[in-house]
Amino acid sequence: GAVVSQHPSRVICKSGTSVKIECRSLDFQATTMFWYRQFPKQSLMLMATSNEGSKATYEQGVEKDKFLINHASLTLSTLTVTSAHPEDSSFYICSALPGVRSPLHFGNGTRLTVT
Amino acid sequence: RKEVEQDPGPFNVPEGATVAFNCTYSNSASQSFFWYRQDCRKEPKLLMSVYSSGNEDGRFTAQLNRASQYISLLIRDSKLSDSATYLCVVNRNNNDMRFGAGTRLTVKP
């Protein structure tokens, strides 16, 4: 149980385009989902907390106008990287909580390469 | 001071060795605790939750010390496949999850 599906797993796009990443909780409802970024050989960095039906909470230094988060339903959160640049190339991972005090369950990540 | 701190390592140990990692947390109201492992270029996967009384799963033992505000992970009889980065995750309160930076373990033949 507690499966989180993330799509796409890999995307290559040109500089200036926008990329949407989907995160779905398949067998549970998640009022809260989290988005992370990880650069090679570095630790996971929390970008934002996505709350169903309300605005996301962004971590310091993360541009909310560049990384648009929409959590329109209890099973789906999306991250859109707008006007992507090569420095946005990274591994993006989402996670969701099935319930209070539950462990986080992670999507399998999206490897974004901006050329 | 970071919310959750881990020794980044790397820990290089021979097969069969016992190795232990600690993770300290700063918020005394933290409610739940977990260890994850992350392999290179993959997402973190839950290794085990950490319960107040301590818990064991095969070769892995997790313990919680609320008084000193740390959790630990002990791996016995290390295998080559245990090589990974081990992440400590703390649920501060109301699903405010905090991560350690991870401890890198390499088990060598």
- Mean pLDDT of chain B, to the nearest integer, reads 93
Mean pLDDT of chain A: 93
Find the biggest chain interface: A-B, 18 and 22 residues
Kindly, what is the distance between the CA atoms of the first and last residues of chain A, rounded to a whole number of angstroms? 37 Å
Structural class of chain B: mainly beta
Order of helices and strands of chain A: EEEEEEEEEEE
Q: Tally the helices of chain A.
A: 0
Radius of gyration of chain A: 13 Å
Helicity of chain B, as a percent range: under 10%
Layout of SSEs?
The complex is a heterodimer of chains A (115) and B (109).
Chain A: E1 4-7, E2 10-13, E3 19-25, E4 32-38, E5 45-51, E6 57-58, E7 67-73, E8 76-81, E9 90-96, E10 105-106, E11 110-114
Parallel strand pairs in A: 2-11
Antiparallel strand pairs in A: 1-3, 3-8, 4-5, 4-9, 5-6, 7-8, 9-10, 9-11
Chain B: E1 4-6, E2 11-14, E3 19-25, E4 32-38, E5 45-50, E6 55-57, E7 60-65, E8 70-75, E9 84-91, E10 97-99, E11 103-108
Parallel strand pairs in B: 2-11
Antiparallel strand pairs in B: 1-3, 3-8, 4-5, 4-9, 6-7, 7-8, 9-10, 9-11
Give a nutshell description of this structure.
The complex is a heterodimer of chains A (115) and B (109). Chain A is an all-beta fold and 115 residues long.
Could you walk me through the main structural features you see in this protein, from its secondary elements to its overall organization?
The complex is a heterodimer of chains A (115) and B (109). With 115 residues, chain A is mainly beta. In chain A, 0% of the residues lie in helices and 50% in strands. Chain A has strands at 4-7, 10-13, 19-25, 32-38, 45-51, 57-58, 67-73, 76-81, 90-96, 105-106, 110-114. In chain A, strands 2, 4, 5, 6, 9, 10 and 11 form a seven-stranded mixed beta sheet that branches. A four-stranded antiparallel beta sheet of chain A has the order 1-3-8-7, with no helix packed on it. Chain A is globular, with a radius of gyration of 13 Å. The mean pLDDT of chain A is 93. With 109 residues, chain B is mainly β. In chain B, 0% of the residues lie in helices and 54% in strands. Chain B has no helices and eleven strands. Chain B is globular and about 40 Å long. Chain A binds chain B through residues 32, 34, 43-44, 46, 91, 93, 97, 100-101, 103-109, 111, and chain B through 31-32, 34, 36, 38, 41-46, 49, 87, 89, 91, 94-95, 97, 99-102.
